[in-house]
Design goal:
The protein contains 10 helices and 16 strands. The strands form 3 sheets. The chain has an 8-stranded mixed beta sheet, sandwiched between helices. A 6-stranded antiparallel beta barrel has the order 11-12-15-14-13-16. Strands 9-10 form a two-stranded antiparallel ribbon. Helix 7 runs antiparallel to helix 8. The chain has helices at about 35-45, 65-70, 80-85, 100-105, 105-120, 140-150, 170-175, 180-190, 205, 295-315, and strands at about 5, 10, 15, 25-30, 55-60, 90-95, 120-125, 155, 160, 165, 195-200, 215, 225-235, 240-250, 260-265, 275-285. The protein is of the alpha/beta class. The two termini are about 30 Å apart.
Length: about 325
């Protein structure tokens, strides 16, 4: 379990509210959801000439959740993001609580009160499409002007593009919606993963010869589309990985009225996983979900799915 010290949660690096951050800061400001190459270039800008504690600053919850009531699922939840930021040289992740009071502040007031007075920013880096302040009134020109007046170094990082356009979190989400894990991995420059705690299920899989670990997933996490996947599974904090076949969605044959769920069956392994946190890396979607005529037909299909999953995963060793 993460430990706590001075009001910060430590996983690999501290996850803090602004008032508990280590000061002064050199900060990369943005949502950084997915932490793709474009985001990493913004972060790299504050590491070139360290003049403060290397810090990533993001808003939580997402501004559109507060302002428009939209549900914004995250590619990386804050605790997951700490594992990704630490190897880059970032020393703390600061989450600024976003509410309507903060949304009403002018661009200049936000910089002065949050970034300067609270975070003691000496260097601020953002992407060139960054907007901030009341009604998104501030842009990079605004930030440069304010920064210059306050003696703060400002770095504006150009948008990163490939042959298909701008690298963005939206493209990653589309790839996951399409069940295209290979393209998601290309965009992220790392495998997409998610975490979940194994909870007691109804034992339906075990009754038909395919016991599964039923995962409780944070409802704010963006997951791939429904279907059956070849996947790697590992117990959090342990290095060993297990070959697995994963079902993402309801159980149309066994219980048509069941809610969508994530079930993982380890291949050639029998381990009591109840209560453990698993890290799942879906590698390839094998098929879409389907309702079968009977349990026997379902069991036969799962056997075929497991065989194909094993072939896919062993080819990638």
């Amino acid at each position: 379990m993460p430990s706590k010290h001075k009001n910060c949660t430590f996983i690999l690096i501290p996850l803090c509210a602004p008032e508990n951050a280590k000061l002064p800061t050199a900060l990369a400001l943005g949502s950084f959801d997915g932490l793709h190459l474009g985001h990493k270039k913004v972060i790299k800008a504050i590491l070139k000439e360290p003049i403060g504690v290397p810090t990533v600053v993001s808003f939580w919850p997402h501004p559109r959740e507060v302002l428009f009531g939209e549900s914004r699922l995250r590619l990386d939840l804050p605790n997951e993001k700490t594992f990704l930021l630490e190897p880059l040289g970032i020393e703390q992740l600061v989450l600024v609580p976003f509410n309507k009071n903060l949304a009403s502040k002018s661009a200049e007031t936000f910089v002065e009160e949050v970034l300067v007075k609270t975070l003691h920013a000496k260097h601020i880096a953002v992407g060139e499409n960054f907007r901030f302040g009341r009604n998104r009134e501030g842009d990079t020109s605004t930030l440069k002007k304010i920064g210059t007046s306050l003696g703060i170094k400002i770095s504006i990082v150009p948008i990163v593009e490939d042959n298909h356009g701008r690298l963005s979190s939206s493209r990653v989400r589309k790839a996951l919606n399409d069940g295209d894990l290979k393209h998601a991995k290309y965009l992220l420059k790392r495998p997409y993963t998610f975490r979940g705690t194994v909870e007691k299920g109804r034992g339906l899989g075990k009754k038909i010869g395919w016991p599964t670990a039923n995962l409780k997933i944070d409802g704010r996490k963006f997951l791939p589309s429904l279907g059956v996947y070849a996947a790697w599974a590992s117990i959090a904090s342990k290095k060993e990985r297990f070959l697995a076949v994963m079902n993402m969605g309801p159980q149309p044959t066994i219980d048509p009225n069941s809610l969508s769920a994530v079930e993982v069956h380890l291949l050639d392994k029998e381990i009591n996983l109840l209560g453990h946190e698993l890290i799942i890396e879906p590698v390839q979607r094998i098929r879409l979900q389907k309702k079968f005529d009977n349990i026997e037909a379902l069991s036969k299909q799962i056997s075929s799915d497991a065989k194909l999953a094993k072939e896919i995963l062993t080819q990638k060793l």
